[in-house]
Amino acid sequence: MGENQASWRLTLANVSHGQFYLEPEIRDIDLDYVDDDSFSVQHFTAFPGQVAFFTPRDVNECDVIAELGVAMPSLDGTEQAVSVPLTVEDEGGLYLRTVDDDGDFYRLDVPPGEYDVVARFYPTEEKREGDPDDAFLPHCKVALTFLPQGTVGPRVLKVAYGKLPERVALRQNDGTVVFVPNGSSLTGG
Fold first, then answer.
1. What's the pLDDT band for 186 if we cut at 50, 70, 90?
2. Does residue 6 carry a pLDDT above 60?
3. Distance in angstroms between the alpha carbons of the first and the last residue of the chain
4. What are the extents of the domains in the chain?
5. Which residues pair with 65 in a beta bridge?
6. Helix extents (H) in 25-123
7. Are 149 and 114 a contacting pair, CB within 8 Å?
8. pLDDT of amino acid 144
């Protein structure tokens, strides 16, 4: 993993509708992750303190590696990759959650700060070792790297299908949406 060191490895179960979330312990339940079509084009919906990621296809579970990093990770072998700004305000870190699981089981001890979270999705085999021959539960492999904000900026880096969007929608907690060019920096760098 180069200069970035893995901090957490876990399997996120019950990933329904091809989405999972990074949220503070007490999330804002009034924020709507999928209220328009921007999420399907850019594969994420970002608010300052929480974000939803959308997998390249519907899956049942995701094998997740999350790490604190200092350098942009390689995109080699990925089928989809995005960079999302995220502010961690609480000492309690972040929680990986799904539509069906809003609990506190999948905690990431991410220190307070402002980050660019680079999410890289990797293609998976059609069947995992140990799966019964007559039952296939789709899964994905994803790596999340927390970089200092401004390292990459908000952007769609790679898509599994379609083309890269020209701009990225970032949501504010008051419901407004800010559009920035794909690849721009929030810090001017």
1. very low
2. no
3. 25
4. 5-181
5. 9, 143
6. 38-42
7. yes
8. 93
pLDDT digits (tens, 9 = 90+) for 98-112: 776 666 677 788 889
| Residue 74 DSSP class | P
Rounded distance between C-alpha atoms, residue 160 and residue 107, angstroms? 28
Closest alpha carbon to 155 in 184, 126, 129: 184
Closest CA to 168 of 182, 157, 152: 182
Confidence of residue 189 (pLDDT cuts 50, 70, 90): very low
Q: Residues in the chain, how many?
A: 189
- The amino acid present at 37, given as its one-letter code, is D
Read off the amino acid at residue 85.
P
Total-model pTM: 0.84
Among 66, 82, 69, 58, which residue's Cα sits nearest to residue 155?
82
What's the angle, vertex CA 60, arms to CA 163 and CA 102, rounded to 5? 100
Q: Tokens 């019950």 appear where? A: 14
Q: Largest Cα–Cα distance in the chain?
A: 53
Q: What is the pLDDT of residue 1?
A: 42
Pick the CATH number of 5-181 from 2.60.34.30, 3.30.70.330, 2.60.40.10, 3.40.1440.10: 2.60.34.30
